[in-house]
Amino acid sequence: MSCGHPHATPCPEVLSWVFDYLDSEIDDVRRADVVAHLGECPPCEEQYALEQTIKALVHRSCCHDSAPAELRVRVIARIQEIRITYRRG
């Protein structure tokens, strides 16, 4: 995804940080990069808004149920695999 314009931080890199940004698990430097990029790149801002909406919907729908510990471990491991693959690609 890209708007076709050059950015200080490339679109794929920013998008790889979106979940960390949504979860407030990102350092201040990257947070500033994400905020700046989203402010100048409508396609990435749209993707961020979509992920934010999905997160809110999941939270509303599932906030009372806890995932079994084993499932949480498998899901987190899979997310990390996907992030590594995405960052390489």
Mean pLDDT over all positions: 87
- As a whole number of angstroms, the C-alpha radius of gyration is 15 Å
In terms of structural class, how would the helical and strand content be classed?
A: mainly alpha
Order of helices and strands: HHHH
The number of distinct helices, counting runs of at least 4 residues, comes to: 4
The rounded distance between the terminal residues' Cα atoms is: 13 Å
- Overall helicity: over 70%
Task: Name the overall outline.
Answer: globular
Per DSSP, what share of the residues sits in E-state strands of 2 or more residues? under 5%
Please give the number of β-strands: 0
The major sheet is characterized as: none
Unreliably modeled segments: none
